[in-house]
């Protein structure tokens, strides 16, 4: 058989530029975990269904197990390791601690990464399916309230096997409140 095709890429990961030669079949998740030792991002289902591998790509959340590393060449990636400001936790991270938004903790990095990006999406006025359940006029103006239903809908792609959803929703609501002040 032939050799594995390689390609040179550049990624800005958590504020640090990385120049890498990667096999074109390598997923972003495997690059992060296996080559760069950023193991906070978890491999759950490896099929894009559980959200454990959620990271932000140029500010937008993606499941990194479905993204080939070569397809994101030149992008900025933020993993769970890049959310805090040094030793100072991000409001989402602090809220997860304060509201016990985890049990076994396996899904927590993906939940936090997803919630972190979701709060930015909500702040800029992005809508979800739940946005139209309440005040339709507010939804059409891009200002849906961040209700429990809205949070659950927006984080539906992140699965928690332990069922800590009520605490996760409380944590995200508290983080939203903390970041809006």
Automatic annotation (TrEMBL):
<protein>
    <submittedName>
        <fullName>2Fe-2S iron-sulfur cluster binding domain-containing protein</fullName>
    </submittedName>
</protein>
<dbReference type="Pfam" id="PF00111">
    <property type="entry name" value="Fer2"/>
</dbReference>
<dbReference type="InterPro" id="IPR036010">
    <property type="entry name" value="2Fe-2S_ferredoxin-like_sf"/>
</dbReference>
<dbReference type="Pfam" id="PF01799">
    <property type="entry name" value="Fer2_2"/>
</dbReference>
<dbReference type="InterPro" id="IPR006058">
    <property type="entry name" value="2Fe2S_fd_BS"/>
</dbReference>
<dbReference type="InterPro" id="IPR001041">
    <property type="entry name" value="2Fe-2S_ferredoxin-type"/>
</dbReference>
<dbReference type="InterPro" id="IPR012675">
    <property type="entry name" value="Beta-grasp_dom_sf"/>
</dbReference>
<keyword id="KW-0560">Oxidoreductase</keyword>
<feature type="domain" description="2Fe-2S ferredoxin-type">
    <location>
        <begin position="7"/>
        <end position="83"/>
    </location>
</feature>
<keyword id="KW-0408">Iron</keyword>
<dbReference type="InterPro" id="IPR036884">
    <property type="entry name" value="2Fe-2S-bd_dom_sf"/>
</dbReference>
<keyword id="KW-0479">Metal-binding</keyword>
<dbReference type="InterPro" id="IPR052914">
    <property type="entry name" value="Aldehyde_Oxdr_Iron-Sulfur"/>
</dbReference>
<dbReference type="InterPro" id="IPR002888">
    <property type="entry name" value="2Fe-2S-bd"/>
</dbReference>
């Amino acid at each position: 058989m032939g050799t594995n095709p390689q390609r040179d890429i550049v990624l800005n990961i958590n504020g640090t530029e990385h120049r890498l030669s990667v096999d074109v079949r390598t997923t972003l998740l495997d690059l992060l975990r296996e080559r760069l030792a950023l193991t906070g991002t978890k491999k759950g289902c490896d099929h894009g269904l559980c959200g454990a591998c959620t990271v932000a790509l140029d500010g937008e959340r993606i499941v990194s197990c479905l993204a080939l590393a070569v397809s994101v060449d030149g992008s900025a990636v933020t993993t769970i390791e890049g959310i805090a400001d040094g030793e100072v936790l991000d409001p989402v991270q602090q809220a997860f601690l304060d509201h016990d938004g985890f049990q076994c903790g396996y899904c927590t990095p993906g939940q936090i990464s997803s919630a972190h990006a979701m709060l930015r999406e909500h702040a800029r006025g992005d809508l979800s399916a739940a946005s139209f359940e309440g005040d339709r006029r507010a939804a059409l103006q891009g200002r849906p309230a961040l209700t429990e239903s809205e949070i659950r809908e927006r984080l539906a792609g992140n699965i928690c096997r332990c069922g800590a959803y009520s605490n996760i929703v409380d944590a995200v609501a508290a983080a939203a409140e903390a970041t809006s002040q």
